[in-house]
Amino acid sequence: MIEVVELRKSFGSIKAVENLNLKISGEIFGFLGPNGAGKTTAIKMMTGLLKPDEGQIRLMGLDLQREPLRARKVFGLVLEEPFLYSRLTPREFLFLIGGLYGMEKKGIKNRMSYLLEMFAMEDYADKHISSLSRGTRQKVALSGALIHNPSILFLDEPLSGVDPPSVYNLKKELRDIVKRGGSIVM
């Protein structure tokens, strides 16, 4: 569950987010609005990448500002321009991310195999990320967000350059997260 209470963020005199209140549980929630409406700013605040001026954020009951490390373990995140370690391979990157989430090696291997197959990346698993197409790099980022089976997933423009079969598989995965009571914010 995601709970946002009276969230505010300004950049100088520009109010990017004003009095945002949300309660999202077991559903896919989409932010809609024109460029500059504050969608990405709201997602960055809900994931701890940007400090709100005011307001509270709770993820699965964990206060993001008081317990940031615990709260960050319950969600996955893909930004429009994801940061990937370009000198790593997708396999190395997923091991790194799984380890950061405290997963055991066997669990990482099993989940990685599933994700590499789901996104048809088996042939690219051992190539440097820097050599991959934009769409394949986006699939690596999505796999990193999904590696630990998060209860919450934040996706900001996640399908940029991703092939239709992978989009279909991702949508199926998102429905499975929601069936388990998870929440998706796009």
UniProtKB/TrEMBL annotation:
<dbReference type="InterPro" id="IPR027417">
    <property type="entry name" value="P-loop_NTPase"/>
</dbReference>
<keyword id="KW-0547">Nucleotide-binding</keyword>
<dbReference type="Pfam" id="PF00005">
    <property type="entry name" value="ABC_tran"/>
</dbReference>
<protein>
    <recommendedName>
        <fullName>ABC transporter domain-containing protein</fullName>
    </recommendedName>
</protein>
<dbReference type="InterPro" id="IPR050763">
    <property type="entry name" value="ABC_transporter_ATP-binding"/>
</dbReference>
<keyword id="KW-0813">Transport</keyword>
<dbReference type="InterPro" id="IPR003439">
    <property type="entry name" value="ABC_transporter-like_ATP-bd"/>
</dbReference>
<feature type="domain" description="ABC transporter">
    <location>
        <begin position="2"/>
        <end position="186"/>
    </location>
</feature>
<dbReference type="GO" id="GO:0005524">
    <property type="term" value="F:ATP binding"/>
</dbReference>
<comment type="similarity">
    <text>Belongs to the ABC transporter superfamily.</text>
</comment>
<keyword id="KW-0067">ATP-binding</keyword>
<dbReference type="GO" id="GO:0016887">
    <property type="term" value="F:ATP hydrolysis activity"/>
</dbReference>
